[in-house]
Amino acid sequence: MKGQNKLFIAIIVALILGVILGGIVHTSYPESNAEFAKNIKLLGTVFIRLIQMIIAPLVFSTLVVGIAKMGDIKMVGRVGTKAMLWFISASLVSLSIGLVLVNWLEPGHVTQLPIQDVSSASDIVKNSKGFSAEDFVTHIIPKSLFEAFATNEVLQIVVFSVMFGIALSAMGEDYVKPVIKGLDIIAHAILKMVGYIMWVAPLGVFGAISAVVATNGFEIFKVYAIYLRDFFFALGILWLVLLLVGYMILGNRLFELLRRIKEPLLIAFSTTSSEAVFPKLVEELERFGCNSRIVSFILPLGYSFNLDGSMMYMTFASIFIAQIYGIDMPLGQQIIMLLVLMLTSKGIAGVPRASLVIIVAACGMFDIPVEGIALILPIDHFCDMGRSMTNVLGNALATSAVSKWEGQLES
């Protein structure tokens, strides 16, 4: 625990120093902003790539071992059903909170945002045009396991791992024991690597924050103050709902869980990557007392289907863009949009800026100018901080809750 506290303090210090350094560069050396941001950002890139390097083998090994060790296919089905019920319920609640609060707070009606150059949204608009049912299916089902590994397609790896784990569990324990033992050793070795990599996190946080502040300065907070204020207020309501449900299920142990995952939450917030904390989250949930088999099964699924922060942002941002352009959407149309977002958002894990791609697709479907995405691009990084942090909390609560329901949560 002492080591964990040292790392937590180091990350906080790096966050503060990053803001200070970025501010100094932005104000004192404006001609060097772009070059400085490009170079300092490499620190964050190193940390993210180190984490990405181990995600695919970790998801594969832990998920296969988790399912194969269950042995009972009925247990796999039971745990999977409980997990999916949680994921669907949490997604609907998150989308609904975003929808209700953006209509109540109306940030698009009271905020005068500067019109951005539409070309800044061109890449996202281009990427969203091809998002069809065919792409949805091909994104879920891998053509090759090695291709999925190479591109870090978590959902495709999950699909293969679930099928492989079920096949192993049906072949008899004695026959597949060497395979399971080998994968179990690989999983533990990778988790050992996590301990080493996490000490690079303060440098990653320092680099990522410095680059953003150096490029945009503190003015960006002023320009978008109302939008950020309303979004983080909505995020706070979502946290309150999630924590209340967590307390109803876990009782006072919820506070122990929050202490355990404080580092993953902070790193996800600082680096805008919930993926970056996946290995550490596995480790901390097992230390919290969650059954390792359930953690290995549910957490990878959660990273594909249970993105609570991203869900809430989708309805919030979509209606915000409509408000900016003065488009009045009837309640019925907004509810249809909610259901469309619910369906189209599943299976987009691993897609760069996935939330924005889905928002653009939804805007195009409901005749909202897709160019409006350019209005929120400058502050998407800061919104992504809150989204990523919330995604981590939601998945930690889902895994702990299902462990408790299965009677597999140790003291």
Unreliable stretches, pLDDT < 50, 5 or more residues?
111-120
From the helix content, strand content and strand pairing, which structural class follows?
mainly alpha
Assess the beta-strand content as a share of residues. Answer: under 5%
Q: Kindly report the average pLDDT value.
A: 80
Helix and strand element order:
HHHHHHHHHHHHHHHHHHHH
Main location: membrane
Subcellular location: Cell membrane
Keywords: Cell membrane, Membrane, Transmembrane, Transmembrane helix, Transport
Membrane topology: Multi-pass membrane protein
Give the topology, please.
Elements: H1 2-28, H2 33-70, H3 73-105, H4 107-110, H5 122-129, H6 133-140, H7 145-151, H8 154-169, H9 173-197, H10 201-216, H11 219-223, H12 225-250, H13 253-260, H14 262-271, H15 278-288, H16 292-305, H17 308-324, H18 331-344, H19 354-365, H20 373-405
Helix pairs in contact: 1-10, 1-14, 2-8, 2-9, 2-10, 2-16, 3-12, 3-16, 3-17, 3-18, 3-20, 5-19, 8-16, 9-15, 12-17, 12-20, 14-20, 15-16, 16-20, 17-18, 17-19, 17-20
Main location: membrane
Protein name: Cation:dicarboxylase symporter family transporter
Membrane topology: Multi-pass membrane protein
What does this structure look like?
By secondary structure, the protein is an all-alpha fold. Helices cover 81% and strands 0% of the residues. It is built from 20 helices and no strands. Helix 3 packs antiparallel against helix 20 and helix 5 packs across helix 19. It is globular, with a radius of gyration of 21 Å. About 2% of the residues have low confidence.
